[in-house]
Design a protein that fits this description.
Elements lengths: L1 E5 L8 H14 L4 E5 L5 H8 L6 E4 L5 H10 L4 E5 L7 H8 L2 E6 L3 H17 L3 E5 L8 H12 L13 H9 L3 H4 L4 H16 L4 H8 L1
Parallel strand pairs: 1-4, 1-5, 2-3, 2-4, 5-6
Helix pairs in contact: 1-9
Bound molecules: adenosine-5'-triphosphate (ATP) and magnesium ion.
């Protein structure tokens, strides 16, 4: 079982959007996926309620439940856990980072997000877990923000995930409908970006999806 923590101290940068997208992508790849929502606002849990019975399974978790939930997931044959954490300084993000195999740090191209980045980068660094930054909400059809973000990520020693997530309304529409951009507009640009992110994550974690499907078959 592999575990991804999605953490960034700045609010509203796309943490939950990426957690939902990776959870859905993993489930669609044939993996047994659990998404843990550690944010007391529970917006990812509410999104799951809008999905009715569609996968992935989403559960609310506190840092106290986390170790037990993760061992139960492993025993139940879970392949991938995606942990969505709250913004601001929290006890949840450090717990998620402690138990994960990969820390993903979503970051929007705003000064306010860049100002918060060193704290989250430090959290990842002290945990000695592999970590990478994902540029989110970038302006479509422009490379300027990507170039600046690359420099900012370099200064905090976070490698940049090659998949960039641009600002598209379909992410908001999808959230309202209890789906992801890949489900709402499968042929759209936003879907292609989320698929590229999934490809990078599954390669990084060596999630052998064909082997898993084969095993089940
Ligand atoms: N790439 C994007 N393009 C446009 N809108 C986006 C994008 N990513 C996320 N959003 C929207 O921005 C809002 C904030 O995103 P999200 O909830 O994923 O951020 P968050 O980091 O989890 O926020 P919080 O810190 O409050 O938990 C949501 O309405 C979401 O639908
Ligand atoms: Mg969130």
């Amino acid at each position: 079982m592999k575990t991804i923590a999605i953490a960034m101290q700045k609010g509203g940068v796309g943490k939950s959007t990426l957690a939902k997208a990776l959870g859905v992508a993993g489930a669609r790849a044939g993996l047994n996926v659990l998404v843990l929502d550690m944010d007391s606002q529970q917006s990812t849990t509410q999104w799951a309620e809008r999905r009715k019975d569609a996968l992935p399974v989403v559960r609310f978790a506190t840092e106290i439940d986390l170790p037990k939930l993760l061992s139960q997931a492993e025993e139940a044959g879970c392949d991938l856990v995606v942990i969505d954490t709250p913004p601001a300084r929290s006890t949840e993000a450090p717990a998620a980072v402690e138990y994960c195999d990969l820390v993903l740090v979503p970051c929007a191209p705003d000064i306010e997000a860049y100002e918060q980045l060193p704290r989250t980068a430090r959290l990842a660094r002290t945990s000695e877990k592999p970590a990478a930054a994902v540029l989110t909400m970038a302006q479509p059809n422009s490379r300027a923000e990507e170039d600046i973000a690359r420099q900012v990520f370099e200064t905090v020693k976070l490698p940049m995930v090659p998949a960039v997530i641009h600002r598209f309304k379909v992410h908001r529409d999808a959230s309202r409908e209890g789906v992801t951009a890949c489900e709402l507009e499968p042929d759209g640009k936003a879907a292609a970006e989320l698929e590229a992110l999934w490809d990078w994550v599954s390669a990084e974690l060596q999630l052998n999806t064909s082997a898993v499907v084969h095993k089940r078959a």
